[in-house]
């Protein structure tokens, strides 16, 4: 007789897309976690480092101790370029920066975190990790038929991963604005700069100090192109206002 398998009440099948990975666009002391968007094929691989602990007491059987854990993560990302600037999304730019010929030593290392990110319900509180990694990538779709541009990333752990509490707090389509960069430096009144960050969709104001930008265009949730207003040369704080709030100021040096 075949016995039916009974699942605990309230349980649900997990889905392959219920994971996320973030890159740190800030510093370890003041992290700015940016989710990597449009990913697929997320595959974390914890790998034990072992040492032979065999003795006569094992009577010839293997006896291996785990002395540490390394990690590797692979995933694919469909990449979007900014129509005005040509740049990829900021998280892709951060990953690619670690693969340039000049990226050596700590310049080749990025901090990442990954976590269970369910479609609905409570995330697994312990299914999350954080660590430092080096980056390699390949361009997956290279055909002549107009395929979607996809980059396949491999992150190789530099040292152990850290166990962290799951940072996922639910789906939020309108996060508070965060500015990660204002480029290029040294622009004057009437010239344009590109502001990158997160939560920039729906921006209602961009300020350079007290005065607002002469004009600005919200390209997407991570990019704004703004025209500098009249003002004195030197350092000025840039802020972005959206319906969700006002960003922390980002220092910018204007001509």
Describe the structure.
With 255 residues, this protein is mainly beta. It has two domains: 19-163, Factor Xa Inhibitor; 178-254, Immunoglobulin-like (Sandwich), CATH 2.60.40.10. Helices cover 3% and strands 44% of the residues. It contains one helix and 16 strands. Strands 1, 2, 3, 4, 5, 6, 7 and 8 form an eight-stranded antiparallel sheet that branches. The chain has a four-stranded antiparallel sheet with strand order 9-10-13-12, with no helix packed on it. Strand 1 (19-24) and strand 2 (33-35) form a beta hairpin. The radius of gyration is 23 Å and the shape is elongated. The mean pLDDT is 91.
List strands and helices in order, with pairings.
Blueprint: E1 19-24, E2 33-35, E3 39-52, E4 64-78, H1 90-97, E5 109-116, E6 128-139, E7 150-157, E8 162-163, E9 178-183, E10 192-198, E11 205-208, E12 215-220, E13 223-227, E14 234-242, E15 245-246, E16 250-254
Antiparallel strand pairs: 1-2, 1-5, 3-4, 4-7, 5-6, 6-7, 6-8, 9-10, 10-13, 11-14, 12-13, 14-15, 14-16
A few lines on this structure:
This protein has 255 residues and is mainly beta. It is built from one helix and 16 strands. Strands 1, 2, 3, 4, 5, 6, 7 and 8 form an eight-stranded antiparallel sheet that branches.
* General form: elongated
Distance between the termini: 82 Å
Uncertain residue segments: none
Q: Helix tally? A: 1
Per CATH, the class of the largest domain reads Few Secondary Structures
Q: Which structural category do the helix and sheet elements fall into?
A: mainly beta
Please write the string of helix (H) and strand (E) elements. EEEEHEEEEEEEEEEEE
How many strands in all? Answer: 16
Number of domains: 2
What portion of residues is helical? under 10%
At the fold tier of CATH, the topology name of the largest domain is Factor Xa Inhibitor
Biggest β-sheet strands, sense, barrel? 8 strands, antiparallel
Percent of residues in β-strands: 35-45%
Give Rg in angstroms. Answer: 23 Å
Q: What is the CATH architecture annotation of the largest domain?
A: Irregular
Give the overall pLDDT as a whole number. Answer: 91
């Amino acid at each position: 007789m075949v016995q039916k398998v009974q699942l605990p009440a309230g349980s649900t099948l997990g889905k392959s897309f219920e994971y996320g990975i973030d890159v740190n666009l800030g510093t370890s002391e003041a992290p700015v976690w940016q989710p990597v968007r449009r990913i697929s094929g997320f595959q974390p691989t914890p790998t034990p480092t072992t040492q032979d602990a065999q003795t006569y007491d094992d009577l010839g059987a293997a006896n291996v101790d785990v002395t540490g854990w390394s990690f590797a993560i692979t995933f694919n990302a469909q990449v979007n370029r900014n129509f005005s600037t040509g740049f990829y999304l900021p998280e892709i730019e951060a990953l690619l920066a670690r693969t340039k010929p000049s990226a050596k030593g700590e310049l080749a290392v990025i901090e990442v975190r990954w976590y269970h990110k369910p479609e609905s319900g409570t995330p697994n509180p312990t299914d999350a990790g954080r660590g430092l990694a080096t980056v390699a990538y390949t361009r997956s779709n290279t055909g002549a038929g107009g395929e979607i541009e996809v980059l396949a990333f491999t992150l190789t752990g530099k040292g152990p991963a850290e166990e962290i509490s799951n940072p996922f707090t639910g789906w939020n389509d309108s996060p508070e604005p965060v500015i990660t960069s204002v480029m290029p430096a040294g622009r004057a009144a009437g010239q344009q700069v590109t502001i990158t960050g997160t939560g920039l969709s729906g921006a209602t104001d961009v300020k350079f100090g007290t005065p607002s930008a002469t004009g600005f265009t919200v390209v997407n949730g991570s990019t704004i192109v703004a025209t500098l207003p009249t003002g004195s040369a030197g350092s000025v704080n840039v802020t972005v206002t959206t319906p969700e709030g006002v960003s922390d100021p980002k220092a910018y040096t204007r001509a």
